[in-house]
From TrEMBL:
Organism: Chryseobacterium indoltheticum
Record-given protein name: DNA binding domain, excisionase family
Helix-turn-helix domain residues: 70-117
Highest taxon in the source lineage: Bacteria
Molecular function per GO: DNA binding
NCBIfam families the record matches: excise
């Protein structure tokens, strides 16, 4: 082709300065910008690859954890998204079996954590349904009624209601509380 008289105004893709291109396909103002851009592309590709490798590693790590009955505390953190503190507390209270293979080598039973974290969610859901407050007359206690029925002073009753997030309804100077929710608490004690 040789020389061309063509002059096309363009913006360099690397330094973003305007330049006059001799070819429609030109992307850079200079050899310098072209090389720099190539290096940057390679760098980006490398970073992408590193990120991809990291991702694949964590996927295969999780797959590997899934196959073992006993896992480390940090693996339990990865797998269940619960904190180290929670896990250590569960071990301490003997809620999940653990083996101590040495300093920082605690292994916990994966199945037991699994069971626990499904077991915790289930009753929570079933609790939410009957907790719809029923404020109809005859279905409610007043604070003083609870107080005399369960031999607790009104302050204690009020605290108990707050602590258990029991819904209440105020009518005049009386606070009405659904009977079933109160009975459930005192039954449980
Ligand atoms: Zn340039």
């Amino acid at each position: 082709m040789g020389f061309s008289n063509l002059r096309i105004p363009k913006l360099c893709e690397f330094c973003e300065k305007p330049f006059e291109a001799k070819k429609v396909t030109a992307r850079f103002c200079s050899k310098y910008c072209s090389e720099k851009s190539g290096k940057r592309q390679k760098q980006l590709a490398k970073e992408m690859e590193a990120r991809q490798t990291l991702l694949e590693k964590s996927v295969s790590k999780i797959a590997d954890i899934q196959t073992r009955p006993y896992i480390s505390v940090s693996e339990a953190v990865t797998l269940f998204g619960i904190s180290r503190d929670t896990i250590h507390r569960l071990i301490k209270s003997k809620k999940i079996p653990a083996i101590n293979l040495g300093e920082r080598l605690t292994r916990v039973s994966k199945i037991d954590i699994e069971k626990m974290f499904t077991a915790v969610e289930m009753p929570d859901k079933s609790k939410e349904i009957p907790e719809k407050p029923n404020f109809e007359v005859g279905n409610c206690y007043t604070i003083s009624e609870i107080s005399s029925k369960f031999y607790a002073d009104p302050g204690t009753v009020t605290n108990l209601i707050k602590r258990n997030k029991i819904p209440t309804k105020k009518v005049g100077s009386f606070v009405y509380v659904p009977k079933n929710l109160i009975d459930k608490i005192f039954d449980g004690k």
